[in-house]
Amino acid sequence: MFKLPSAYICGVRVKHLDEKKCVVSVKHRWINQNPFKSMFWAVQGMAAELSTAAIMIGKIRASDKKISMLVVANEAKYTKKATGRITFTCHQGTLIDETLNKAMETGEGQTVWLESVGVNEEGIAVSTFRFEWSVKVKQ
Question: Domains of the chain (ranges plus CATH)?
Fold first, then answer.
């Protein structure tokens, strides 16, 4: 809540987090809608980004290393109007492990593309986000 106040105000919530995946949910409401009465793209982006970042943050904390992380690029594709509850899931915990291990082994910065797919209550994909994360072990 303190690190991402705008996401909290818009209703973005982590529903599940483990070593392999993160599930983030947000419900279409007045505060997060666009003029077309669907969820604003930026709210979807906040939820999607959090689903990729939360796994990485947990793994960085568990490593006891000082590792910086930063989004350096992103892509989004919208396939259906986002109304109701939208759930974003990232399933790439193993890929994050590989990237962090390589950064720690080599001491060089690494990048990794992580994907989060948002689905509505019927299980239909409404948007897909990809974030390129940069990680670097601090000295």
Answer: 5-137 (3.10.129.10)
Mean pLDDT across the stretch 123-131? 98
Helices 41-63 and 93-106 sit at what angle, rounded to 10 degrees? Answer: 50
Strand runs labelled E in 1-124: 13-17, 22-27, 67-78, 85-90, 110-119
Residue 85 near residue 25 (C-beta atoms within 8 A): yes
- Token digits for 6? 């705008």
Residue 79 — φ and ψ, nearest 5°?
A: -120, -15
pTM of the model: 0.93
For residue 117, give the amino acid letter: V
Q: How far apart are CA 61 and CA 46, in angstroms?
A: 21
Mean pLDDT, range 93-107, rounded to an integer: 96
Q: How many CA atoms lie within 13 A of 69 on its CB side?
A: 24
Chain centroid to CA 61: 17
- Distance, CA of 116 to CA of 127 (rounded, Å): 9
